[in-house]
């Protein structure tokens, strides 16, 4: 019989990444819904969530928010510091032991009117998905008003 090279199923990847996200303690509520892992930001000034999902046959990690002001606060921080979000995420990946990746970050307003930062994952496995999710959280937590609710 031929061997399958498809790799782990989306459900298995999301379930494993969910367990790793819960163990990290970095997020608010965490759940899997409609074929995507959704991890709510712990203390942002307005609701935002980190997600792992499949689109166009690829896995992606994303930060999404409905609030234009929150998205703008992140952009303003990046503008003022001169940092590139790709470099910040890459540094967090290195801290997590995942080297040799140069993430590409897309930033746009989606069809469902969510301000979105997203990155395609370089491979389809739970360890990579979880590392990118945690790198996104560590990077974006310090930008804009993503920690604004921590003292409230």
Describe what this molecule looks like in 3D.
This protein is of the alpha+beta class. It contains four helices and six strands, in the order αββββααββα. The chain has a six-stranded antiparallel beta sheet with strand order 1-2-3-4-6-5. A hairpin with a 6-residue loop joins β2 and β3. α1 crosses α4 and α3 crosses α4. The mean pLDDT is 91.
Mind summarizing the main beta sheet?
Answer: 6 strands, antiparallel
In terms of quaternary structure, the protein is: single chain
Structural class: alpha+beta
Straight-line distance between termini: 59 Å
pLDDT < 50 stretches: none
Would you tell me the overall average pLDDT? 91
H/E topology pattern: HEEEEHHEEH
Number of separate strands: 6
Please bin the fraction of helical residues. 25-40%
Spatial shape: globular
Strand content: 25-35%
Strand order of the largest sheet: 1-2-3-4-6-5
Rg on CA atoms, Å? 15 Å
List keywords for this structure.
152 residues, alpha+beta, 4 helices
Summary, kept brief:
This protein is of the alpha+beta class. The protein contains 4 helices and 6 strands. Helix 1 crosses helix 4 and helix 3 crosses helix 4.
């Amino acid at each position: 019989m031929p061997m399958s090279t498809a790799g782990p199923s989306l459900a298995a990847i999301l379930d494993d990444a969910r367990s790793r996200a819960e163990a990290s303690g970095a997020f608010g509520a965490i759940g899997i819904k409609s074929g995507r892992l959704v991890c709510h930001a712990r203390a942002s000034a307005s609701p935002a969530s980190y997600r792992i999902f499949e689109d166009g046959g690829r896995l992606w990690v994303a930060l999404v928010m409905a609030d234009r002001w929150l998205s703008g606060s992140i952009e303003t921080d990046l503008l003022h510091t001169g940092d590139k979000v790709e470099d910040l995420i890459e540094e967090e990946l290195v801290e997590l032991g995942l080297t040799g990746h140069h993430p590409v970050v897309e930033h746009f307003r989606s069809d469902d009117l969510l301000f979105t930062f997203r990155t395609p994952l370089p491979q389809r496995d739970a360890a990579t998905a979880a590392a990118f999710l945690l790198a996104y959280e560590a990077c974006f937590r310090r930008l804009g008003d993503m920690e604004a609710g921590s003292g409230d």
